[in-house]
Recover the amino acids of this structure.
């Protein structure tokens, strides 16, 4: 339709340019419109360049996949499938194990850090009745070589009445050796040895008094001094950590 109107308009424009009589131009336009209408009637049905649906179905061919089919029995095929699946699972497990192992190896502490994690002390250098302070993992550790009288004093207390009830035997592995973190359980100051009202340690920051077993007896601290992990590899050595 748009072709028709553009052809008519072009014909009218050329007639106007050549000064044709208007009735001649109108008859010419009518002739063009009739020709176009008859052409449109002839091509009213659509013809696909790819043929009709029936022709397409007639040429549709499904290829044969027979040459790809296994020639073995079903049980043989299953065995092969299980073998492939099992092999892939095994390979994946080995890969995952190697990945996790590498990750843990990289993330674990290095040898120099592990060396700092433990401290060994020669106990024969600490006389009876004396304190020693060592540094372990950035914290002070108090080591007391207790006398027999101090051990007796620590055990004579009715520990059930204390603020943080704990018997002395639960705080030591050997009665003569008392090992504790030198960190006040109130706000973390370092208590002073052989001081305070109970002959143990005294924290000058806010006035906490600990007895000869490191148990809180007076002042604002809520808990006894903490006992770290330690062991005695032999009679004269102590390992902290
Ligand atoms: S920090 Fe020791 S009493 Fe407050």
């Amino acid at each position: 339709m748009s072709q028709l109107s553009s052809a008519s308009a072009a014909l009218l424009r050329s007639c106007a340019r050549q000064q044709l009589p208007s009735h001649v131009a109108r008859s010419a336009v009518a002739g063009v419109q009739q020709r176009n209408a008859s052409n449109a009637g002839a091509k009213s049905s659509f013809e696909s360049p790819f043929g009709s649906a029936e022709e397409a179905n007639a040429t549709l061919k499904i290829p044969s996949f027979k040459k790809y089919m296994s020639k073995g029995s079903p049980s043989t095929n299953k065995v092969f499938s299980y073998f492939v699946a099992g092999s892939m699972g095994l390979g994946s497990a080995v890969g995952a194990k190697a990945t996790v192992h590498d990750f843990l190896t990289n993330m674990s502490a290095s040898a120099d850090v592990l060396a700092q994690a433990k401290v060994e002390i020669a106990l024969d250098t600490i006389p009876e009745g004396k304190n020693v302070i060592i540094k372990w993992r950035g914290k002070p550790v108090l080591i007391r070589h207790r006398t027999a009288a101090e051990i007796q004093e620590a055990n004579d207390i009715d520990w059930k009445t204390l603020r943080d009830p704990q018997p002395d035997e639960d705080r030591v592995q050997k009665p003569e050796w008392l090992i504790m973190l030198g960190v006040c359980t109130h706000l973390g100051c370092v208590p002073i040895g052989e001081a305070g009202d109970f002959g143990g340690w005294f924290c000058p920051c806010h006035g906490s008094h600990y007895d000869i077993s490191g148990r809180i007896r007076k002042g604002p601290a809520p808990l006894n001094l903490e006992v770290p992990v330690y062991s005695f590899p032999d009679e004269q050595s102590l390992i902290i950590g």
Observations:
- DSSP finds six helices and ten strands in the chain.
